Amino acid sequence: MTKTLITNGTIVTAADTYKADVLVDDEKVAMIGKGLKAAGAKRIDATAKYVIPGGIDVHTHMELPFGGTFASDDFHTGTVAAAFGGTTSIVDFAVQGMGEPLETARDAWLKKARGKASIDYGLHMIVRDVTDKVLKEMDVMVKEGVSSFKLFMAYPGVFQVDDGSIFKAISRTAENGGLICMHAENGGVIDVLVKRALAAKHTEPKWHALTRPPEAEGEATNRAFRLAEMAGGIPLYIVHLSSSQALEQVRLFRDRGLPAYAETCPQYLFLSIDNYDEPGFDGAKYVMSPPLRERWHQDELWKGLARNDLQVVSTDHCPFCMKEGYQGLPKQKQLGIGDFSK
After folding, report:
1. Burial level of 273, CB count in 10 A (0-12/13-18/19+)?
2. Domains of the chain and CATH, by start
């Protein structure tokens, strides 16, 4: 059992800021108080420093396979970076292959993490193939510790599932105690807008945002909550909410007393669609889904956090390099030169 005594620091919690000591016993906070003593404990003097709880990032994608390449962080590099930033736990997304048992996907992600992760980690499960067999497998996953399942309303032919499948999965969580996490964008409409833009020779990175309008996020968010309502008022969680239009739907359903939850991310709080106008191809640095929005959305998101309509800030950490590829694979962001959709 390893004990650490942090002395003379300024402790910051969700509710208070005050000076005190913290005794950590085998990775757990055992005691907080002034003038604490602990024989044999490692001592850290935190004078003139803040002492805060370790962050929990509930939305990361280490080594995510996407678009012919992989996210450039694995469980080693990604969790080391997280630790340097004060994050001590992540929840990553295992990805089900089409027709693949959920157990196989979970085990593949545990293998990616084992022996590499520098901090604690857990898993969500991305479900791409909602069959009767998979619905039963969701029950097993919940019992074995993977209790949240991400579905996509975007990326047709890759991740997107239809409304009937969404309804079935939401209904299943009412029975097994799981939670559906939803990527809410209208993938069908976005697909049409992307094809129109490319046909008109619009290829710059900014068109990634212009073909994924906030209305597409708002519509999908409303539809997701409507499906949850039809399933009996089942809890539903919207991931990486980026726009006022989507937030309006969260607020609408919460005000009606329904269990509607959502997260946003730092990029949506601090960056805007203007970043896509950086010189040359530099705007590609900011290509993400949902995309960055006009600056006025930021104020609405901050209000959403202050009023608890948004309950979580996560990162959606899923980095891709501008030039070099992942472990010898083709270049990453530069795949989009001449075609923003790649």
Report:
1. middle
2. 3-51 (2.30.40.10), 55-336 (3.20.20.140)
